[in-house]
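SAMPLE LOG
Freezer: B-3
Tube label: C17
Construct: single chain, 313 aa
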Amino acid sequence: MTALSSRHIISMDDLSADDITLILDTAESFAEVNERRIKKLPTLRGRTVINLFLEPSTRTRTSFEIAAKRLSADAINMTGSASATVKGESLRDTAATLSAMACDLIVVRHSYAGAPHVLTECMDAHVVNGGDGMHQHPTQALLDLFTMRRRASRLEGLTVGIVGDIAHSRVAGSLVPALLTVGATPVIIAPPTLLPARPDVLGAEVSTSLDEALPALDVAYMLRIQMERAEGMPFPSLREYARFYGMNEARLAAAKPDMFVMHPGPMNRGVEVSSGVADSPRTVVLDQVNAGVAVRMAVMYLLLGGEGGGAAA
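STRUCTURE (predicted):
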């Protein structure tokens, strides 16, 4: 298999197990390129990538921009304040305008679930979902799988606890189906107020106690509390949340010796992760950031049919 089965990446449902393996294997070659002194490849020279970020982002937008430039694509960044959407232009009209400019791939982040799908209906370019509302964030899930596979040397059979604000998290929305596809076991762990109304629909195991679930975990994936999406404080206090659901030194010591901690960022020290854990070698947050560039290079390369003798030529 040398090509993805879908021309867009809107959700993890677009990707088969073979697709995921292809992306992760391709990303391995780009990770090696990113360690070189000269990191630029001619692979996508002449291609145009537009990053349409209509919701704030630092890590994802920068990662996609670096990925495009390292593949020699022309990368253009558009934010909400710099686009015509602030003047009332609809997303469909924005898509039609960008399509008329003959861009090849568009990465979109939007506060409304389904926005990337709208673009697929309005333009010929490949569309990658950079995060849509509380729906999905597929390239985050892919870079997380890449990080897990490197750290644990496998994906199949891992038990991954996803801890925190499940109800408002597009990261969880992508990571749960991604883990199921590769044969891992996701366990969502949260207070009842931060679980979706029907958590069983996700297909993951469910627990309301981190301490009870902790001994079985190979990975503890800590989520940020999405205060901007929640209606009011969904628990009595941040201090109480940290007491029952935060990863601290005592919990890390009680876990499996080889369990490691992940976080999609930005991290709230002292809430979901203590400072001691955040700075521990068992926390791989910076590995996730590094993986983001390689994985997004792989996604662009595979969607745009990169040529030139291989990914790391």
